[in-house]
Every structure is written in structure tokens, then in C-alpha cells.
Fold this protein.
Amino acid sequence: MGNLTALAPLVELAKKRGIIFQSSEIYGGASGVYDFGPIGVEIKNNLKRFFWKRFIHLPDNMVGIDAGILMQRAVWQASGHEMNFVDLMVECKKCHQRFRHDDEEIKNNTCPICKSTDLTLPQKFNAMFKTFFGPLEDSGHQTFLRPETAQGMFVNFKNVLDTTRQKLPFGMGQIGKAFRNEITTKNFIFRSREFEQGEIEFFIEPSEPEGEKWFDWWLQEWQQFFLDLGLSPKNLRFRPHKKSELAHYSRATVDIEYKFPFGWAELAGVANRTDFDLKRHSQVSGKDLTYFDETKKEKYYPWVIEPTMGIDRTVLAILCESYSEYPHGRSGKGEKEIVLDINPKIAAFKAAVFPLTKDEKLVKVAEKIVAELKEKSGNVFYDITGSIGRRYRRQDEIGTPFCITVDFESLDDKKVTIRDISTMEQERVAIKDLNKWLEPKTRI
Ligand code: ATP
């Protein structure tokens, strides 16, 4: 488990090792937007696969969808986002910086930047990004980049029901981009303007007991997901929303918070959206979005339990959890070392393969191992430069769980040494058994 106490060392490592970069960095950066580099994209994709297998492929009553980011403006009018997706913003009259009204210092009527107490009254600010269909930039062609993936699932309720013949309770899941024009962006990828969500809309019979039952069920599932990813129980907690902070569509919401280096903050949530969305879309579109219950012989709008999570925030939590810094190395006698002890299923590379030297015979064996592992076990890194110690350390910094060294003995005994990132223990394994050894440890 990690020992990170502030985000700065992680941000530095992320840039140095190609995990996450600031967007448009060479032009001074696009604020609140981040690019996942060669290592980061692998981690994020593995996380998404882990999510998809567990919530879409394994259960029989779940299906996936990938809806467009752009939708008719009418969707956002019906869903209430055009009216209600607002943050309260306060401007400092002295330095003209803008802040969210719920910022702690703003609550105490002080500008967090220049400490002036001369602030404007809170003003409403809609957090959706405006854009236009086609060349005419008028209100008839205006729409928004989606601020949540959920609506793409609600408007497809009938299509999915008709094509999959699912019966209640069943769910639809989606992973995709969402955009919010956040007033302030901070804490690296925690609060950004472009991010990904993993969301499920779980349709159930419309009643309070059913709602409560499935709400609790999903909260446990969601929590277990984070535990299985490797987040520690002491860094996770539930935070039920007070009535006054509930979103306009929600009857009940519980956040799952993670203890980031900057404090406890929302990682994910579960909301009971009741029949709000299906009913609203039916009313505004004029299309029937009810469900026919064959046992009860009646038509009704199902209720919806919505578990949602931030994919980027989950990546951040994984990185924070797995980051450890050793000022004098893991031996206690060397130079500073950083170890990213990530769950092997989520790590960018399943293993790294090193020939001990550049000797042709070793290189040949190592290259063959790489090809075979890539074919069957997934992404594998090949490194031939520098001492073995340096090569270990490069892999430690990006979280590669296993380092495989081909040495001169390997030519005779047809075995290699595998070193485990967490324990640093070494094991000799037959080359022919490598896939069998690696695959179960890293398979999603
Ligand atoms: P917050 O209170 O932090 O603004 P929220 O309650 O508005 O978040 P939801 O509308 O519940 O967030 O969105 C679902 C999930 O999307 C959140 O649990 C979070 O993980 C993620 N998310 C929301 N806003 C952002 C953002 N600006 N950057 C990254 N992830 C976000």
C-alpha cells in the first residue's frame, strides 16, 4: 500500500513515465483536460475491461451500449439539465478569479487566491458545454456535449428492450466521455472538464421496497469492485447525500468516497432516479417508454437505480493507492526509488522481459518469449538496455508486476527468473510454462 501524501510527486511521475500529460502542453496547457500517454492508456483500458467483464459480460441481465456524445437539445430539456445542471459561482471583485460557491474558503467569504473579502453574490452557471449541429450557430441548431452518459441509455430504453427481450430487473451499462465546464479544475485528473464515466442504469419494478433493495445491492457491488481493484477498505467510505444536496432527479444518493492525498472526495455514487427520466422523455418525446409486465399484466414506468463512477477518478485512486516512495531505495541503502504496485490485471504491462546481456543467444531466447507472451498473455515490455537493477526500477515506476530475466543458465536449463514487484522475490520458471504461469495472474 502506498505512502503518497500530496499529488505533486505522482503528477511528476505521470509525466516522466508517459502515464498522464497535460493537454496542449506545448501551448501552455488546456485547463482541466488531460491526455493519457502510452502507459496511462493501457491502465485506463484495462480498468474499463475489468468493469465491462464484471458488469456487462458476467451477469445475464446486463447489456452494454455506446451512445453518441451529441444528442438532440430536447434530451437536455426533458432531462432537466438545461434548467438545473447549474453550479453556483462566485467572483472575486479584486482579482476576478471565479470559484464554486461550495468552496470552503468562499463559504467563509474569502477569496482563496488574493484573500479579499469583496466577492460577488453567487450566480448560476450552467456547466454544460454548448455546441452546434451544422454551420448555423443559432439556438435552433444548438445542443450540448453530454455532461453524463446516462441520458443515452434512457432514450434507448425502448430500442434495447425490443432488441434484447430483457425482463425486469435488467440493466444497461456504458463507459464514455462526459464534459462539464467546471468553474474551477483542480487536483490533477480528479476534477477535469473532459472525463470518462462508467455508468449503469438498472431498471426495476417501481416500488420503495424494490428501490431500497436494489440500491443497497448496487452499493455493495460498487464497493466490492473498488476493493477488488486493490483500493484498501480504510481509504473507502460511504457518504449519503442530505436532502438539500440531492440532484434534481434523485430520491436518494450515496457517494463512495476515497481518501485521496488532498482529502476524502467522491469517487463514485449510487442514485435512485425513480421513474423520473423515462417519464420525462415519454412526456416530451410523445413516445411510450413504459414496460409491459407480463406476470402482472400491467404497464408502468420502471424505476432506475444508477450506480456511476468516474473512470479517471478511479485511475487516480489506483495510482495514489499503489504509489510508494523509498528515499533510500527498497534496500534502505541506495538512491530514491518509486514503486507503483498496481493490481497485475490493471497494470500497463503484464510482464517485462530482459536478456541479461546483449549476447545474441540470450536476445534470441528473450525475443521468442516476448512474442509468445504477447500472443497469449497480453501486453509485454522488452528491455535490453542498462543494468538489470536499472531495468527493474524503470518497470517498478510504471507498475509492471513481473520482470523476467533470461540469463546464461537459461540456455541450459530452459528456465528464466521471474521477480515479483510486490515481494521482490524471485522464482525460476520453465520457459514452456510461462504463459500458464502468467495468464491467470494477469487475466481480466
Ligand atoms: P462532484 O460533486 O465531485 O462535482 P458530481 O456529484 O457532480 O461530482 P456525478 O454527477 O454523480 O458527480 O457524476 C458521476 C461520477 O462522474 C462522479 O462520481 C465522478 O467520479 C465523475 N465526475 C464527475 N465530475 C467529474 C469531473 N469534473 N472530473 C472527473 N470526474 C468527474
